[in-house]
Specification:
The chain has 340 residues and is an alpha+beta fold. The chain has three domains: 132 residues, no CATH class; 60 residues, no CATH class; 103 residues, Immunoglobulin-like, CATH 2.60.40. It is built from three helices and 18 strands.
């Protein structure tokens, strides 16, 4: 009987110990996050030389765009504040964040005559800086002129999660990119997407003129591509073929590209048949998909050199090379005109 009680006690101890261990394992990520925020703020304090008081727990809102609508995400974190710091030290705060990989977030920024707010983000670590003019009110409610060479500052930092990732359409992302190029608002950009693949978008672009009663200036046809998460313009669009009639006009000794959607995980790939007297295949390249989903497809780029003037064609067949006597599941024929 005594052995039975001992076994029961040991079992209870083991179960309790296991529960305690699991609870500690779940708590570790939170502690690690808190340490990261604490280290960030301590390093900021040291590198800027600002005499911040004791750090405190804070809670603040972080604005996120979810398909053209703004949502507030509550962030738990740490922060501190200081009054009457020199401008020279205040500007060091922004420099510190940029040096450590933070980028300004346009949705978490506001300017005012008395105070302003700036938001910065690095992955899921976010910070807001609230800077205000140093001054106070008299009994009559009038502002005493603030000291122009000093500022009050409040800093709050915390760790978010996937909820702070903005969700916007491809069209909206391209509009914002083009708005930066033309130094205007995204709402002033009109794009008409003609064709697209996984990485490339061909579109007509117009910039609205707000002072011309709805008039718009045509900027022409653009080919934009996403590289390392950012949209970029490919300037020499005539070298890339996206036309529905699959017709390319080029010049002797010029290069041109043809880009086709492909997914090698299925075993299929494009085979190009062409006349070697007229064309030379300079480079063939597979472009990985931007999606991290297993089995996602990308694009295959073919770089050709025109060897002599005349008319020729390229036949692309989408097939599995080891399957004999089986027709391709897709075929594209491009008509090539090579001028002198």
């Amino acid at each position: 009987m005594r052995k039975k009680y001992i076994l029961i006690i040991l079992l209870i101890i083991l179960i309790g110990g296991g529960i305690f261990w699991l609870s500690k394992q779940e708590a570790l990520p939170l502690e690690k996050i808190e340490d990261e925020v604490l280290n960030l703020l301590e390093n900021l304090k040291q590198e800027t030389g600002i005499d911040f008081p004791v750090m405190v727990d804070v809670e603040f809102d972080w604005l996120v765009e979810k398909d053209k609508e703004m949502e507030r995400v509550t962030i738990q974190g740490k922060g501190f504040e200081a009054q009457g710091i020199p401008i020279e030290q205040y500007v060091k705060i922004e420099s510190f964040l940029k040096v450590h990989g933070f980028k300004a977030d346009i949705y978490n920024a506001a300017a005012g005559t008395i105070s302003g707010l700036d938001g910065y983000r690095k992955d899921y670590l976010v910070c807001i800086i609230i800077g205000g003019a140093t001054g106070y009110k008299e009994a009559a409610g009038q502002w005493i002129p603030p000291e122009s060479d000093k500022k009050d500052v409040e800093i709050k930092c915390g760790q978010g999660d996937e909820s702070i990732d903005p969700i916007i359409s491809k069209e909206e992302a391209i509009k914002r990119f083009l708005a930066q190029k033309y130094q205007t608002k995204a709402s002033a950009i009109n794009i008409d997407i003609k064709q697209e693949t996984t990485h490339y978008v061909k579109c007509n672009v117009q910039v609205l003129d707000e002072f011309a009663q709805g008039g718009a200036e045509d900027k022409g046809i653009f080919l934009v591509t996403k590289i390392d998460g950012s949209w970029q313009i490919i300037e020499e669009i005539e070298k890339y073929n996206f036309s529905e009639d699959q017709t390319i006009i080029t010049k002797n000794n010029d290069n041109f590209f043809i880009i086709l959607e492909a997914n090698p995980t299925t075993g299929y790939q494009w085979k190009a048949d062409f006349e070697s007297d007229y064309l030379e295949l300079i480079k063939r390249e597979y472009i990985d998909p931007s999606s991290e989903l297993v089995g996602a497809g990308g694009d295959e780029s073919f770089n050709f050199l025109a060897l002599k003037s005349g008319q020729t064609e390229i036949t692309f067949s989408y097939l599995r090379s080891w399957e004999k006597d089986i027709p391709p599941i897709e075929e594209k024929i491009y008509q090539i005109t090579i001028n002198k």
